[in-house]
């Protein structure tokens, strides 16, 4: 898997992936920080060399690890910013919205390594991790769920929806019900309806 932003800074925010990797130096909250200085130094995970691409690799697969992009990554037009070599990856659609990443393309590239999906939506505003009800933002939630159905995805899909804006218990239940109905409906889609990429 490759994450790239050609010819411009790769924006700050939570990296949309959590991997199962060997133990490594972590930030205070247990999340490994990725930024320009760490990329230049190398050693973010075992086998990562100084510069780009940052290589996130498995090594001795002993514990889950999370990564946070804590500053822009300035790369050349020909380099990839990050290459994920882990055998098990989580894709979080609220985080892909925050980072401006293409969740559908990431899922396609991950293939069988995708084992866990955090279903949510986001407006695509940088550094704004919204966890909207699926279908209320800019992420390809429906096409991704339909792709998972067509691929007979054996992994886990969890809803990760923020209901803080709901002013009543009924509104909160309504948001959660809508999110669950949306997810179930699109995961049950017929394979014939799931063969194409979402419109750009």
Describe the overall structure.
This protein is α/β, with parallel strands linked by helices and about 200 residues long. It has 2 domains: about 90 residues, no CATH class; about 110 residues, Divalent-metal-dependent TIM barrel enzymes (TIM Barrel). Helices cover about 25% and strands about 25% of the residues. It contains 5 helices and 11 strands, in the order ββββαβββββααβαβα. It has a 6-stranded mixed sheet. Strands 1-8-5 form a 3-stranded mixed sheet, with no helix packed on it. Helix 4 packs across helix 5. The longest helix is centred in the last third of the chain and has 19 residues. It is globular.
What's the topology here?
Elements: E1 2-3, E2 9-10, E3 13-21, E4 31-34, H1 36-41, E5 54-56, E6 63-69, E7 73-74, E8 82-84, E9 89-92, H2 93-99, H3 103-110, E10 114-119, H4 141-150, E11 156-159, H5 169-187
Parallel strand pairs: 4-6, 5-8, 9-10, 10-11
Antiparallel strand pairs: 1-8, 2-7, 3-6, 3-9
Number of helices: 5
Strand content: 15-25%
Distance separating the two termini: 20 Å
What is the CATH class designation of the largest domain? Alpha Beta
Query: In order across it, which strands form the biggest sheet?
Result: 4-6-3-9-10-11
Task: Calculate Rg over CA atoms.
Answer: 17 Å
Average predicted local confidence, pLDDT: 79
The count of β-strands is 11
Q: What is the count of structural domains?
A: 2
Name the CATH superfamily classification of the largest domain. Divalent-metal-dependent TIM barrel enzymes
Described by strand count, sense and barrel closure, the largest sheet is:
6 strands, mixed
Measured as a percent range, the helix fraction is 25-40%
Uncertain segments? 1-26
CATH architecture of the largest domain: Alpha-Beta Barrel
Shape label: globular
Q: What is the CATH topology of the largest domain?
A: TIM Barrel
């Amino acid at each position: 898997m490759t994450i790239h932003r050609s010819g411009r800074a790769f924006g700050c925010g939570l990296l949309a992936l959590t991997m199962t990797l060997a133990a490594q130096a972590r930030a205070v909250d247990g999340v490994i920080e990725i930024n320009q200085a760490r990329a230049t130094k190398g050693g973010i995970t075992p086998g990562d060399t100084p510069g780009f691409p940052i290589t996130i690799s498995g090594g001795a697969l002993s514990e889950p690890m999370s990564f946070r992009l804590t500053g822009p990554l300035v790369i050349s037009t020909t380099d990839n910013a990050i290459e994920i070599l882990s055998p098990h990856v989580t894709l979080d659609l609220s985080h892909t919205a925050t980072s401006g990443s293409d969740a559908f393309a990431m899922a396609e590239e991950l293939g069988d390594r995708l084992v866990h999906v955090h279903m949510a939506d986001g407006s695509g505003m940088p550094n704004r991790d919204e966890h909207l009800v699926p279908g209320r933002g800019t992420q390809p939630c429906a096409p991704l769920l339909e792709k998972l159905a067509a691929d007979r995805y054996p992994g886990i899909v969890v809803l990760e929806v923020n209901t803080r804006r709901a002013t009543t218990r009924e509104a909160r239940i309504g948001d959660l019900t809508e999110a669950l109905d949306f997810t179930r409906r699109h995961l049950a889609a017929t394979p014939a309806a799931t063969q194409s990429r979402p419109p750009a």
